[in-house]
Amino acid sequence: MRVGCPKEIKNHEYRVGLTPGAVREYVAHGHEVIVQTGAGAGIGADDNAYRAAGATIAKTAEEVFTRADMIVKVKEPQPNEWVQLREGQILYTYLHLAPDPAQTKGLLDSGVTAVAYETVTDDRGGLPLLAPMSEVAGRLSIQAGATALQKANGGRGVLLGGVPGVLPGKVTVIGGGVVGLHAAKMAAGLGADVTILDRSIPRLRQLDDIFNGRVHTRYSTVEALEEECFSADIVVGAVLIPGAAAPKLVSREMLSGMKKGAVLVDVAIDQGGCFETSHATTHADPTYEVDGIIHYCVANMPGAVPVTSAHALNNATLHYGLQLADKGIKAILDDQHLRNGLNVHKGRITNRAVAEALGYEMAEPKTVLAAA
């Protein structure tokens, strides 16, 4: 199969869909790999590194899209990319379709077969291709929040770890999944007073064991959410419903009860955000203020640390990517976890959460794949 990797074009996105090491694996499996010139510049991998790994270098993205049978990316295709996709081609990348009707229509019109990293599953019920970027985003959320909290950046002027004689800053993490766990680790490591809210008692027990009392755990009710947000210096939104739009857990009305200059970090912004006042921002202009509260809502947070995140992502995506390259559509038909990752196929939505969020009729993946 011809596997193509175009350069990412989203604002300040420096990651790459295939590292040179991943290219070597595809080549070892007998596949031809086409990489757009400069695609790996953000991680310090030049064209020669890709040539040494066995790739062919394409001068333009158009050449990659035209020649490749499978496109491997990081972020969702932009408008000038989805118009280059075609029926019979496989797209393998993050999609986050539920809050993005325009992209969804573009993919449907193209006829492409689109597998979304964020909905591929594993035997333990996890999301193995989302997990590494959730780990990165969770840790970055505290770095970003602490920076935004500085007075010169519009924040309250609180040092998260405090100093002897002065209380530390307070961090509230909404959601105890992968993002929440790693946000809490970073915040606790800096010496902050940390509380994690979640609605799973077993998960709260697990988190309590992990942190051995260094982090508070609290069952998430409306009252608990308000109390924790009102007392926090940083609130991290770390809620995920796989494939679906994120629930709006912090309303605009609640902002009036928060400390002026407190920071909201919405890690769920790729799925529409879990704060009512959230809208996507970029690394070029990451924050804005609403009712005295600083909002950090960068939609590609891991893109800020591309060397770490691109390699972590490739480690996770390589296994399923090789299956797709080796077997094509049959890989999706044969593997339940890849079928869960299938979001679009030949003009049909094949993921229930996406279909329900956007008002489409869902097509059963096995049925449409078998028909093909």
UniProtKB/TrEMBL annotation:
PANTHER family: ALANINE DEHYDROGENASE (PTHR42795). It catalyses: L-alanine + NAD(+) + H2O = pyruvate + NH4(+) + NADH + H(+). InterPro entries: Ala_DH, Ala_DH/PNT_CS2, AlaDH/PNT_N, AlaDH/PNT_NAD(H)-bd, NAD(P)-bd_dom_sf. Belongs to the AlaDH/PNT family. GO terms for cellular component: plasma membrane. Keywords: NAD, Nucleotide-binding, Oxidoreductase. Its EC number is 1.4.1.1. NAD(+) binds at S134, D198, R203, S220, V239, L240, V267, A268, I269, D270, V298, A299, N300, M301. One of its GO terms (molecular function) is alanine dehydrogenase activity. The active site is at H96, D270. Substrate binds at R15, K75. It comes from the Bacteria. Residues 4-137 form the Alanine dehydrogenase/pyridine nucleotide transhydrogenase N-terminal domain. One of its GO terms (biological process) is L-alanine catabolic process. Residues 149-297 form the Alanine dehydrogenase/pyridine nucleotide transhydrogenase NAD(H)-binding domain. CDD domains: L-AlaDH (cd05305). This is Alanine dehydrogenase.
